[in-house]
Amino acid sequence: MDSRIKRRMLIIPLVYAVVGAIIGFLMIYFIEHQLINMFHAVSKVEIEVKANFPYFVYLILAFSFAIPGLKAFILNLIAVRQWRSGLSPSCPVCGFPMIQRIARRGPYIGQCFWGCYQYPKCCGKIHIG
């Protein structure tokens, strides 16, 4: 596989997912500490305060930032596997895998066609009919 295709379709979305998860966990950490600091400032009482969020809330909030990257990674992994097995053609313009799409406007509205993965950067397409 071309390293350009591998980087564009698999590595970049995975990096986005990991960075999103890290940002989510950091946001949760800082939000929890800000709540504790606000409680101390308002109550002016020095007692042990701990925000007891359930663990699954942390995971849901943290991974909500990672979901778009994970979704792109999984969809691109499927597209690359189909491309490798010969189920989807290569773009005649740039050589990237093509994705089956449905025309939304123009004379072929509602019909399927193969469109380049890099659209709108590359406008390669194959009419299926």
From TrEMBL:
TM stretches of this protein: 12-31, 55-78
Stated name of the protein: Uncharacterized protein
Keywords (A to Z) from UniProt: Membrane, Transmembrane, Transmembrane helix
Organism: Shewanella fodinae
